[in-house]
Structures are given as C-alpha cells and as structure tokens.
Amino acid sequence: AMAGPPGLKPLVAVAQVTSTPDKEQNFTSCARLVREAARRGAGIVFLPEGFDYIGGDTTQTLALAEGLDGDIMGRYSGLARDCGVWLSLGGFHERGQDWATTQRIYNCHALLDPAGSLVATYRKTHLCDVELEGRVTMKESSFTNPGTEIVAPVSTPAGKLGLSICYDLRFPEISLALRQAGAEVLTYPSAFTYPTGSAHWEV
C-alpha cells in the first residue's frame, strides 16, 4: 500500500473515537474505522489513548485491563494483518508482569506492523494528576505505574515514529530526546476530558 512514485508521501489515518467501558463495542467502532482507512489506501492508522476502553471508575478500569498477550491485543493484531496496515495503538490499559504484586496497570502505546507483530511498546512516563476545582479531578498515578524509559524511534512508512502519550506533551525533554534519536514524527495519542480539551485544542 505504500509503494508509489518517488517523493509520494504515504497516506496516514487518524481515528477519533469515544470509548466506553464496553470493550466489544469499542473494538467494533475502531475496527470499522481501520478497515475504512485501509480501503482508502492508508498505510498506518493511529488510534487514541483509551481506544480499548474508558472505565467508569478506577475499580472498573483495573478490572477490564489485560496483558499485551490478551484477547484485545490479539484481535488488533489480527486486524492489522487482515487490513495490511500498521496500527499505532496509543494508550492501551496494560496489565504488566508486576500486576500480581502492584495491582496497578501501565498506560501503554503499542505499535503493530502489517504482519500483526508487536514491534514496539512505550509505557507513559508522565502520569496525569490534575484537579480543576468544580470541573475535573484526575489522579492517574493512583492506579497506574509510570514507565521508566523512552523507546527508540521506529521506522514505518510514515517515517520514524517517536512514541509518547498525552500528558507527555507537557514535558519537552521527551520530544527533544526522541528527535535526537532520529524521530521524524512525534505521536501524542490522547484522551482529553472536555474541560482540558477545550483549553488546549482548536478545530
């Protein structure tokens, strides 16, 4: 899908979804968008933070989490393979190998190639703890372990991707480090709340 005349830029797709606690419904919505993007010739599809689900509370968020070897990631692997596209899965609720001892998850940006292989994972290092009086309170650190390292940029048809997630945007050092490591595209898949989104984005 990426072959073409020299200088032709690859087609990328950015999918916007509103996730719920219903993982099946979320997968159906995301899969429809990925298939449509592939039909239109996209070589890589970017899904947002929380593409797998957004829990109603901390207890539900932890209960719904899976490992990278679980059902949901397996289904996205099959989707990438079936559609022949790269998938940037930003913000997967990952139960890591330390789940049994910590009972905390990781906010994981996973990258799949067109064979469905997991080629890179980045765990969000800067967790979002924010309190806007009367509007929104969020304490990601109460149920999420921070990642401990930056991941080397990955070569894709869209260029060398630097993986990060949402709140990492506020810390320019990670962008500088990724750029110095050769990143050509910096990714910040995000699931903003309405108040914080309104304060940051213009459409």
TrEMBL record:
Signal peptide positions (record): none
Ranges for domain CN hydrolase: 8-203
InterPro entries named in the record: C-N_Hydrolase, C-N_Hydrolase_sf, UPF0012_CS
Pfam families, per the entry: CN_hydrolase
PANTHER family given in the database record: DEAMINATED GLUTATHIONE AMIDASE, NITRILASE-RELATED
Protein name: NIT1 amidase
Species, as recorded: Nyctiprogne leucopyga
Lineage: Eukaryota, Metazoa, Chordata, Craniata, Vertebrata
